[in-house]
Structure formats: C-alpha cells, structure tokens
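Protocol step 4 of 6: record predicted structures for both targets in the notebook before any analysis. Target 1:
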Amino acid sequence: MNIELLKEKLEQLKKRPNCSKGTIDQIENWLTGSHILQRLRINPYYVAGDTVKNVKKITSEFLHGVKAGAFDLHWDIHCPHCNMITEEFKELADTSEMSFCPMCEREFKIDLLDRVEVTFSLNKEIEDPQLRPVCAPPPVLQSKLQLVTPLYCTESETVTLEEGRYRYCCPPDFS
C-alpha cells in the first residue's frame, strides 16, 4: 500500500466543505490497521465496527473518496447458495439478469436487492494487490467457523467435531 498517496488523497477529502474529518480519520485508521484481504472489498459496516451509527457518514466519505480517486466502487454479485462473489462490476448498468457460480456449478437469477453488495477498495494507484478471486465467508459467519485460511496460505489444525451437519468450502482452482 502506498501510504503517502493514501494520506495525500485523504487530506484532499478533508479540504472538502462539510466533510467529516473525524470520519476520514476513522477510515484511515481502519485502512492502516487492516490486512490486504480486508481491503479487497471494504464494506462501510466493517469500518464502523461498534459505532454503527457512523455508517452513513463513512459511506458518504467513501463515495466522495471515489470521486477524489482514493477508492474504487464495486457492485458484487453473490451466489445465493455459498455467498461466493461470482461477478464484480464497476457500473451497475453492466450487470445481467443471470450469473453462474463455479463453486456450486449453478446458474442463478440476480436479485438486485438480495444478491448485490456495494463495496469499496483502495484505488489501484494506492494499492493493486493483483490477487485471484477469494471465496471467504462473510465476516458475520467467520466467528462460527473453525478454520478460515487466506488465499495462498497454509494452516493446519486438529478439530474435534460434535455430531451434526457441517459444510466444507474450498474455492475451485481457476488456474
């Protein structure tokens, strides 16, 4: 991450009339303390953390940041079965009616209310991670999972499972 360019872009945002300097500082603190995989698809709720009341201000500053070149905006299509992001668009008008999930091997109709998520990432000039797509559970589910391993990382763990039903998710290899 190019910290100097990030700070420069955020300082430009702070010069805007009616900006929320405290919110911009909160965004900066979150970004500098985050992992690269967290910055691939930034949801304003992640940045808000326990202070959910700030989500509207955070979203507003991200949108202004898109215009200022600090962030990129993404329209992500999620599979209704596994939640994998099957497509990503820069413009909502570019979406189609149908999408295909390579993990589930299913085609599904895109429901713009339930299957589309708006996320942000740092502008490619600030950070260009050049990673393949990642199929990771949403943060709300990660605490319920025993082992989540980032892309290209290896971990091992012995887990004792209680009787019940389990789901094992392993992203397909797109190489």
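Target 2:
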Amino acid sequence: MRDFVDAARRFVAEAPVAVSLEEERELVAVKAALYARALTLFEGALLLIQNDRQLDFRIQSRSVIEAAMYLIALDRNPAFVTRMKDDDFKSRQSRAALHLGAKKFTGTEDVRQQLEEFVAQGLQGAKAIQLGSLLEGSDFDRLYRSYRDISGDAAHVSMTALNRHYVENPVDGSATLIINPELDEIDFLVTLTELGITMTIATLLIMKIKQKTEVWDTFQALLHRYRALARDTRGSPEIQSSREDGPSEL
C-alpha cells in the first residue's frame, strides 16, 4: 500500500493533461477530482491500519470504494456527469430547506434571503443518484456489494455493527464493551483485497485520460504483487491488462 501511494503521487505529479473541448475539460476535471478523493481517502486508510485501527480502516475503505464507483460510472457513460450535478443540486436544495425550517435560524438575514431564493428555484427535475444503480452491468459490480457489506457491518449504526462492540457471555450473562475492536481474519483480508482492487481499478481508469505515464511499469509490478496477495488470501479476481496494451485497456 505504501508503494502504491508513492507511485500514485508520482503519477499525479506528471505533466498536465491537454484537453481541447469544454465538454472534455469538465469530464476530465471531474474524473481527476474523483481520483484525488480516492487517493486521499486511501492514504487515510493506510494511516489507520499503520496504527492498528482495524475497524476504522474498514470504515474508511468504504469511502474509497464509493469514489471508485463514481469513476467507473463516468468511464462507462460520460453523460453521467449531468446526473452528478443533478444529485448535488437536489442535495443542496434539501440542506437549504432543512436550515430554513430549523426552530432557530442562526444565520444573518442576508443568508436567510439567499437560502429562500435558492429553495424557491425548486428541484427543476433534479433527481438523487441511487448508488445501487451505478455499476449495474459492470464487470466491477462486486464493489457495490462490498460497499453495502461495509455499510451494514461497520460504517452505519446498526445491530450488526454494534455486535462488534457489545459481546455477551452466554455462561454468566455478563457483557463486555469493546473499544477499537479487531477484525477477524476473513474480514481483515477481504477489506485489504477489496481496497487494493478498488485503487487499482481507479488508477487504470485515470490512466486512460493521460494515455502516457512514466510509472506504467511501476503500476504493472504493483498489480502483479496484488494478484499474488489476492491468490494467497483467496481474494479478488484479476484485472486483465497487459504492458503491450497500455493503460487504455482494462
């Protein structure tokens, strides 16, 4: 993981990407920002596991998967950027209305007026994105299943998630509260391999934008290392790519 972060940082520090059309510029910008978000969260996950925060590491990996899911959706359908804009507009409308409807509004009158004018625009047909539909028909639809597993098991408050923190003793009826619980071996290895395949997919997709990179061979070596680790842990299926095809093939 540390080697991957080092290679990814060298990758994003390379020469700028030239774009010709405004539509292409926007698409490249959104994809690049998604990759920057995924890499930021990935580095955060690495810091957590280095400090043996296993559950936090699992929770953080969910956000990396989410960013990659959006990147995959954009790669499959460039027009998806419009849906992202609509989703963002709907969310901002909802938040603005929530603040206006508070029992005690803490903003100034100018802020209140701005919010009222914004809410008055209405949704204008904007709809929220359903995450479950992002990867339908994709070769990587398994990532959504992993995303949901982590959500129910660790990221959200649920009875399943609380079972990691509250463990009853069936013998005497006592219970133990566990702070910073460890993952069992299967959950730990699955989280590692899913996080690895997620960042690999995201990196190969962003490479398609640049078309040429000085760290292609480095990423190929890292991919081979990931495959070996995944096989050892009975983890993820391999990504099909080759040095001859280059980063435009996934």
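Step 5 preliminary note on target 2. The chain has nine helices and two strands. Confidence is low (pLDDT under 50) at residues 235-250.
Proceed to step 6 after PI sign-off.
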